Automatic annotation (TrEMBL):
It comes from the Bacteria. GO terms for molecular function: 4 iron, 4 sulfur cluster binding; carbon monoxide binding; iron ion binding. This is Hydrogenase maturation factor. One of its GO terms (biological process) is protein maturation. The keyword Cell membrane does not apply.
Length: 358
């Protein structure tokens, strides 16, 4: 059965690639927004199935890549306190801050724990009432509801030793920044299907109305990505710009109303700093006033200095201006075992995808 499914997928992939070659008459540059899509494209060598005139560039949708070095510095400062247990997702432990990583301070004795869900951090807090448990919460619209759920639960349980260090991002304002950038060359977007499963497609309709660029809601399997590319280039060839959703089996147009309501209750929209890109207005989440008692920043004694500039050119990579192999450090000074920048660490990072699969 497994082989039959693989055979069908390969057949569908080849048919879609053939259709794309038939439709395309001129050069187009498309951006896949999500790092998961980037990995699928590079791992399955999908670019080699496309006509040379269709270029894919990689977007900012990797939460580990865009979390600011300053947030990591704050997490490291908290982790070094003996009364703190610092918890986060696995990839975050290896990302360099301005000086070192959470993994490095763990090796010196700090209590840094990897977890798979924010709810695990609540369990650790309940089991360690004498310690402060700080969850470094990162992600896009997809992980926001899980962090919100943990916070709502912590409030219901009246936990007073659970805190969050927030680094949550919103995708549409980052797309605006890319389209408005002086160096922008992206003409159509493969929008992140899993994000739309939460938010619905309305934020992307607003982007289309504002910028007149096609937005195709796209999944992660090779057939999903080629279907997204086909829809996108077909729109461009016809001179159209609209939201198209061929990923309806996962993302309906309205999104998940319960998740949206939970996020709106716990968070409010704020400006956010994106690593390598800079500050983007209204592109992040902060705790709403009724959840401020869980704010881990209040535990920090003093403000930390701003992180110094890095040699990593992740900002150009994440905005589709350059590709990983155009970075002078790629594969030399920067490798997964000693990364200079976050895109070489994350399982969704573009540099890691090129290093591992090409
Ligand atoms: S190869 Fe390394 S230094 Fe260069 S952009 Fe990627 S992560 Fe940054």
């Amino acid at each position: 059965m497994k082989y039959l499914t693989e055979y069908r997928d390969r057949h569908a992939t080849e048919r879609l690639a053939e259709k794309i070659r038939t439709v395309v008459t001129q050069p187009w540059v498309l951006m896949e927004v999500c790092g998961g899509q980037t990995h699928s494209i590079v791992k399955n060598a999908l670019e080699q199935l496309l006509p040379a005139s269709v270029q894919l560039v990689h977007g900012p949708g990797c939460p580990v890549c865009v979390t600011a070095a300053e947030i990591l510095d704050q997490a490291i400062a908290l982790a070094q306190r003996p009364d703190v247990i610092l918890c986060s997702f696995g990839d975050m432990l290896r990302v360099p801050g301005s000086q070192q990583s959470l993994q490095a301070v763990k090796a010196t004795g700090a209590d840094v724990r990897m977890l798979y869900s924010p709810m695990d951090a609540l369990a650790i807090a309940r089991a360690n009432p004498q310690r402060k448990v700080v969850f470094l919460a990162v992600g896009f619209e997809t992980t926001g509801p899980a962090t919100a759920l943990a916070l709502a639960q912590a409030r219901q349980w009246r936990l007073n030793n659970f805190f969050v260090l927030l680094s949550h991002f919103l995708v549409p304002p980052a797309i605006s920044t890319i389209v408005e950038g002086l160096n922008n060359r992206v003409q159509g977007f493969l929008a992140p299907g899993h994000v739309c499963a939460v938010t619905g497609i309305e934020p992307y309709q607003q982007l289309v109305a504002r910028y007149r660029v096609p937005m195709v809601i796209t999944g992660f399997e090779p057939v999903d990505i080629l279907q997204g590319i086909l829809c996108c280039v077909a729109q461009l060839e016809r001179g159209e710009a609209r939201v198209e959703n061929p990923y309806r089996r996962v993302a309906n147009d309205q999104g998940n109303a319960r998740a949206q309501s939970l996020v709106n209750d716990v968070f409010e929209v704020s400006d956010q700093h994106w690593r390598g890109i800079g500050s983007i207005a209204n592109s992040g989440l902060r705790l709403s006033p009724s959840y401020q008692m869980f704010n881990a920043v209040a535990l920090l004694d003093t403000a930390l200095p701003a992180a110094s500039p890095s040699e990593c050119i992740s900002g150009d990579i994440l905005q589709g201006i350059k590709k990983p192999k155009q970075c002078p450090h790629f594969g030399h000074r920067c490798r997964p075992e000693h990364p200079l920048g976050a895109p070489m660490v994350s399982s969704e990072g573009a540099c890691a995808a090129y290093f591992n699969y090409q």
